[in-house]
Design brief:
- It contains 6 helices and 16 strands.
- With 267 residues, it is an alpha/beta fold.
- A 6-stranded mixed beta sheet has the order 6-5-4-1-15-16. Strands 7-8-9-10-12-11 form a 6-stranded mixed beta sheet, covered by helices on one side.
- Helix content is 22%, strand content 25%.
- The radius of gyration is 17 Å and the shape is globular.
- Helix 2 packs parallel to helix 3 (91-98).
Length: 267
Amino acid sequence: MSDASAVPLHVVQITDTHLYAQAGGRLLGLDTDESLRQVVGKVAAGPRPDLVVATGDLAHDGSAAAYARLRQHFGRLDAPVYCLPGNHDDAGRLADACDQPPFHCTSALRVGGWQLLFLDSTVPGSEGGHLKERELAALDRSLSAHPDTPALVWLHHQPLPIGSPWLDTMAVDNGEQLFAVIDRHPQVRALVWGHIHQVFEQRHRDLRLLATPSTCIQFEPDSEDFSIDLLPPGYRWLQLRPDGGLETGVERLAGIPGDVDLNLRGY
């Protein structure tokens, strides 16, 4: 008989869905409902996730109607969904819609021999991010309470420069404080975020730094100014092994599900 405790935890990250109040709303020409529908379909066609983490900018306009449709899209996956706010979200409306099982807005989760910690990096009225002292203190306490449990830390904004000056004006402005906390806790295996609409994979010492494509529009890496990348939408999967090992990768649609307006110079 197989030992269920030895089975990796299969996690899917979906990010930057940018849904609108009206179904069929378009971001830079792309129907964000349709692109999310196709990405969720690709997830559903693969191994069933044990849980989904949605890392912000879930509604482009912060509308209750957008969050209601988000629940419908994610409901196809038959998995618990943990939601974080992004700079486009209305945190109150997000919590109203997505803090009812199987949806959750929480700061910590222990599952499958791992600890998952969720940070709110949003600043009302700002595109950039900041981690409040209480967020960092809670993170430190949670990690101190379980020093032998491998951990992942999730947030919306990038916590360090990624090499795109226009996007780096919208990063967490006190990322060094986050790294100071994490450096005290070697059980943290990775920091994972959204916001930048592109793959990013680096290391900070033994810590993996991971960002994930949007389910709609992609941004050109290493771009000085706003620039669209014509890669298809996608998502990230993570396999969390009971021994603390981590495997991860990105899956994309075969093509962009619609037309992107390359004449637009911002969003």
